[in-house]
Amino acid sequence: MLLGTGLFGTVRALRHARLIADTPTARIASAAQGYTELQGRGQALDGTPLLSPVNALPLLWYRLQTERRQSNGEWQVTSTDTSDASFLLDDDSGQCAIDPEGAEMLVRRRDVFTQGELRYTQWSLIRHDRLYVLGDFATLGSAHARTDTSAQVRELLAAWKADRPQLLSRFDLDGDGTIDLREWELARAQARREVRQQQSEAMTAAELHVMRRPADGRLYLISDLDPERIGHQYRWFAAFHAAVFLGAAAAAAWFGQIGVL
How far apart, in whole angstroms, are the C-alpha atoms of residue 205 and residue 198? Predict the structure, then answer.
C-alpha cells in the first residue's frame, strides 16, 4: 500500500508544481475563460462579514481545528470546521469572486488559542492578504445574458398556468373562471413584455467574474504564498512521497529476500 501511496503522491505533487510553473498569471479584466491563474489582494464581499468563531475578528476564510487535552497530557482532535463563504480577489484591473469550496488551501497564517482543556488552531485569510488562485475562471452577466425570447415566453406562460388562481386574477377579464383566446393573447403579450424587460436588465447588468473548482479535476488552489514558494512546497511534497515509495520498495525487496531464504 505504501508503494502505491508514495508513487501517487509523487506524481500528483510534481504535476501540481508543473501546473503552477506553466500557467501564466492573467489580469481579471482580460482573463480568458477557463483554467486561469490570478494574483491580487483579498477583499470581503458586501453584507454580513465572516467572523472568526474563536475571537470574532473579521476574516475572509478560516479552518479551525479543536483539540481536547487527554488525561495523559496529549491533545486529541475533536473537530475541524472550515468556512465556505466566498470572498473577492482584487488585482486593480477588476474583482473576482472566489468560491473556496473544493479548493486546496495553502495558508501560512496560523494562530493557536488555549482555553482550559481545549486548544484551537486557526488557519485564516484576512482582508488585504496577497492571494494566489489557480482554478476555473468564468464571467457571468451581460456577456452571457439569455436572449431566446420565444423559449423564455413559453417558460413564463407555463409558470403562470401552473398557478391558475393567480393567472385568473390577472387575465380573466370577464370573470367567468376561464381564459378565452382574447385573454390568452393578452397574457402572451404581457409575458413577452416581461421577458424583454428581463433581457434588457440582464444585458445592462455588470459582469461578475468567479473562480471555482475545475470540473475536470485539475488542481484548484488558493494560497497566501507566492507562486515560487508554492512550487517549492509541492516539490518538497514530491520528494517526501518519493522517499516513502523508495523506502517501501526497499522494504518489500528485503522481505522478499528473507522469504526466499
Answer: 10
Whole-number Å distance between alpha carbons of 102 and 160? 38
Phi, psi of 204 (to 5 degrees): -95, -5
For residue 141, is pLDDT > 70?
Answer: no
Model confidence pLDDT, tens digit, residues 88-133: 999 999 999 999 999 999 999 999 999 999 999 999 999 999 999 9
- 88 sits in the region (left: phi over 0; alpha: psi -120 to 50; else beta) called beta
Measured in Å, how far apart are the chain's first and last C-alpha atoms? 24
Task: Look at residue 204 in the predicted model and tell me its pLDDT.
Answer: 55
Longest dimension (CA), the chain: 101
Q: What is the pLDDT of residue 48?
A: 82
3-state SS track over 53-97: CCCCCEECEEEEEEEEECCCCCEEEEEEEECCCCEEEECCCCEEE
Angle, to 10 degrees, between the axis of helix 164-171 and the axis of helix 181-204? 100
Residue 112, strand partner residues: 121
Only one residue has cell 398557478, namely 163
Q: Residue 20: is it exposed, middle or buried by C-beta count within 10 angstroms (0-12/13-18/19+)?
A: buried
Euclidean distance between CA atoms 3 and 246, whole angstroms: 8
Q: What pLDDT is stored for residue 134 in this prediction?
A: 93
Sign of the CA dihedral 170, 174, 175, 178? negative
